[in-house]
Design a protein that fits this description.
- By secondary structure, the chain is an alpha/beta fold.
- 44% of the residues lie in helices and 17% in strands.
- The chain is built from 20 helices and 16 strands.
- The protein has a five-stranded antiparallel β-sheet with strand order 2-1-5-4-3, sandwiched between helices. It has a five-stranded parallel β-sheet with strand order 7-10-13-6-14. Strands 8-9 form a two-stranded antiparallel sheet.
- Helix 14 packs across helix 16 (381-395).
- It starts with a helix and ends in a 5-residue tail after the last helix.
């Protein structure tokens, strides 16, 4: 295959590399651009098999058989080809990504050779890789923000009505001192206490006083999920990891990276989940469900339980090694019945929150009502006190809250769900207290309720309303 002098001048002037091959696959023409890109002089390659010089291996170094080469395939079948996923090797042993075409050359309808035109696409590949990495980062960040947004919205919904830790009693002062001592460390904390005592509030205070306060505090209630779902909730899952896993999802451990993870009701973990949790604590690494890739995390772990974990260990329900891992610094939150001196401050803080929530202007509770609160056993602790005060605040019509003598049945009724007769009884009792238990007359409870005095007395007898 021969090139006319005028054609050679044109081919020498172009910026793309150009090779001309005869039917044996040997080089018959090499332009200056090809020499510059490959480092091979034309004198070194003319009459030689170009494939053996700089197309002999794939990008990973594996052998590239000549029979698989698109350029040499064009020599055999006369079909043009365009390739953008190969590399050419330079004389110095380095390689560069190329985009090239192999075009058959005919004379009098007879194939006489092939022309290969190529260009170095290193910058293009780098740009594509940079864009791909940037897109992956954007997608990862978008996924993280979406997950965190979903998590934070659920957290806000579940914590509406929470108040800060309140109390000046010796036991609460001890809790406050323990929080200050351990907050600035990375030590694992195990918070124990009955339901409703405020264990999660202790965890939040620990996080807010820690060096990780500007990072997320991620909570998970271990009792709220089945063992199979809990693993996905803690460690996340890949798309298609199980039925219903329509997309990749990050778990709580991943969301808590560089922050704090709070495991509430940790005693409810299955033995299998306990084993996996122990491994994560030891190695600070885990795998998403459906993935074998290990993900490293830096988290501060806080756990809480209302169970006696020592007894759970003795019963074979909780791993001893995990218990020791969690019980580095124990904090016990006392029940409300053991710190009744804190009632006035607790009531004040709770009512401030209730006023914001309900749009009320309740300034406090009566002295008699406070005595009723102090005489009660509080099996549901501070949470029960919150629910009780909110219930009576809904019914209240004045600025001072009046509460009747409490009984377990009256106080433990489900939140905001009262029988009609009980709601009527509570309302009548509050009105009677407000009017000093005066029934008749212009300043009597019957007049305020819009009832004849006889009807009010009848209702009081029926509902069992008596003055203490």
């Amino acid at each position: 295959m021969q090139f006319l002098p005028e054609n050679k001048l044109i081919l020498d002037a172009v910026n793309e590399g150009i090779y001309g091959f005869d039917l044996n696959g040997n080089a018959v023409f090499i332009n200056p651009a090809a020499e510059k890109m490959t480092g091979w002089d034309s004198a070194e390659l003319l009459g030689k098999n170009i494939h053996d010089c700089h197309h002999h291996s794939h990008a990973d170094g594996s052998h590239y058989p000549q029979e698989d080469c698109p350029i040499y395939n064009t020599l055999h079948d006369g079909l043009a080809r365009e390739i953008s996923h190969d590399v050419f090797w330079r004389k110095d042993g380095s390689s560069f990504p190329v985009h090239y075409t192999s075009t058959p050359v005919y004379r009098d309808n007879k194939l006489i050779g092939v022309v290969a035109i190529f260009r170095d696409i290193s910058i293009q590949k780098q740009t594509e890789d940079s864009l791909r990495q940037a897109l992956e980062q954007v997608q990862a960040l978008s996924e993280k923000l979406a997950t965190e947004n979903h998590y934070l919205l659920s957290e806000l919904a579940s914590h509406t009505g929470d108040v800060s830790l309140s109390g000046d009693s010796p036991k609460m002062q001890q809790v406050a001192q323990q929080i200050k001592l351990v907050a600035h460390t990375n030590s694992t904390v195990l918070i124990s206490g009955e339901n409703g005592t405020g264990k999660e509030l202790v965890a939040r205070n620990l996080h807010q006083l820690s060096d990780r306060a500007d990072k997320p505090l991620i909570s998970v209630n271990c009792a709220a999920f089945t063992p199979s779902l809990l693993e996905s909730e803690l460690f996340g899952h890949e798309k298609g990891a199980f039925t219903g896993a329509s997309s990749r999802r990050k778990g709580r451990f991943e969301l808590a990276d560089n922050g704090t993870l709070f495991l509430d009701e940790v005693a409810e973990l299955s033995l299998e989940a306990q084993s996996k949790l122990l491994r994560v604590i030891q190695e600070q690494a885990f795998e998403r469900v459906g993935s074998s890739r290990s993900i490293k995390v830096d988290i501060r772990l806080i756990a809480a339980t209302h169970h006696d974990l020592n007894k759970r260990v003795e019963q074979g329900l909780f791993r001893m090694d995990l218990f020791y891992r969690l019980n580095v610094f124990p904090i016990h939150v006392p029940p409300l019945r053991d710190r009744l001196d804190d009632l006035p401050l607790l009531v004040k803080d709770i009512l401030l929150d209730i006023n914001k929530k309900l749009g009320k202007k309740i300034t406090g509770i009566s002295k008699t009502s406070l005595k009723h609160l102090a005489a009660y056993g509080w099996p549901g602790n501070v949470r029960e006190l919150q629910n009780l005060l909110e219930r009576y605040s809904i019914l209240a019509q004045g600025e001072l809250l009046h509460l009747p003598k409490l009984t377990p049945q009256a106080s433990t009724q489900p939140d905001d769900v009262l029988l009609l007769a009980e709601a009527e009884k509570l309302h009548i009792e509050m009105v009677l207290q407000r009017f000093g238990w005066r029934i008749s007359g212009p300043n009597g409870a019957a007049n305020a309720l819009g009832l004849p005095p006889s009807t009010l007395r009848s209702k009081m007898a029926k509902l069992g309303i008596k003055r203490d």
